[in-house]
Amino acid sequence: MIELIPGVPNFINVMIVALMVGVVVGTLTTLSITQAERAKMRKRIAQVAGTLPTSKSFGGSRGGGQRKRMVAAKLKEIEDKAKAKKSAGNTLREMMMQANLDWTPARFYTVSAIVAVVGTALYLLKGFPPLVSPMVALTLGWGLPRWVVKRMATKRQKAFTLKFADAVDVIVRGIRSGLPVGECLNIIGRELPEPIGLEFRLIVEGQKLGLTMDEVMTRSLARMPTPELKFFAIVLAIQQQTGGNLADTLSKLSDVLRGRKKLKDKIQSLSSEAKSSAGIIGSLPFFVCGLLYLVNPEYLRILFIDPTGHILIAGGLTWMGIGIFVMSRMIAFDY
After folding, report:
1. Which of 153, 228, 235, 293 could form an SS bridge with 98, CB 3.0 to 4.6 Å?
2. Which of these, 215, 212, 217, lies nearest to 200 by C-alpha position?
3. Any idea where the domains of the chain sit in the sequence?
């Protein structure tokens, strides 16, 4: 048998090999899921553009096909701008902007370094093995701060999406009562709560500074990259190019947004059983371990004071992490 670590028992070498295989399997699973999502997105864009034949494509009108091509062109333009910004290295700045965090990158890296140093020092003072300290420092200094900022941005986007259909309805009623679009946006900025009120106030301020609607919406999408706001930007851009009744178009958009909300709630209700099962299965080892430690501390103490126990704990946590990740991807439905 090949020994990865000489002088270590065979079962530990077997566990290390199993962990390496698990990491490879998890990576391949992630790549396959990502490729499937990209293929699905390309297919949906092709259907919108009218380049992919569907059962209804032969009966469609020429105007409908032209409008679909314009929507697809606008979607591709927004996607190209997002890719250009990501390749320019502004990911961290955009993440903080989406989280409404008024920090500079230098301040973010400084705080991350302080968290990494303090956390690693506490880890070493507790007597844990120094071999794992680089991983602890990397997790606390790189992964944890970015996870917190991303979570803040996600929470803010959910709050925005929750009230966005109401904001569109305010615009529809304002236009039908004779108010200009700018005044309707100003009303939303004054009356609706954060974060939707702040975003519409920034849109109004951008228009007052002389920016075009396309430029203002591009900046707004950088701060709030939600599909709902992208739909809103596409509707405004196409309406400016083709004309038409903006109130009716936005009214249909509001119906679409509310339909998406209902579908999302339905998906959550249907997947709640799977999520509950995943939560129970994931927390069961920690619960049993805590009970055993309360009943007989000496029975589990060897896991925390012996190097072999540290390897076993690391292996168990790694496999649990892979399992939780796979289950989370299985119940993450695309709507």
Report:
1. 153
2. 217
3. 90-243, 262-335
Amino acid occupying residue 57? S
Amino acid letter for position 33:
I
Distant-in-sequence, close-in-space partners of 288: CB < 8 Å, separation ≥ 6: none
DSSP state of 100: T
Closest CA relative to residue 254, chosen from 166, 179, 173, 177: 166
Q: Using H for helix, E for strand and C for coil, what is the string for 172-183?
A: HHHHHCCCCHHH
Higher local confidence (pLDDT), 76 or 245: 245
Q: Count of CB atoms within 10 A of residue 172's CB?
A: 20
- Across 14-42, average pLDDT: 65
Nearest to 193 by CA among 222, 233, 162: 162
Provide the residue type at 268 as one letter: Q
Cα–Cα distance for residue pair 31/28, rounded to 1 Å? 5
pLDDT of residue 59: 44
Torsion, Cα 211 214 191 168, to 10 degrees, reads 160
SS3 157: helix
Would you tell me how many other CB atoms lie within 10 Å of the CB of residue 196? 22
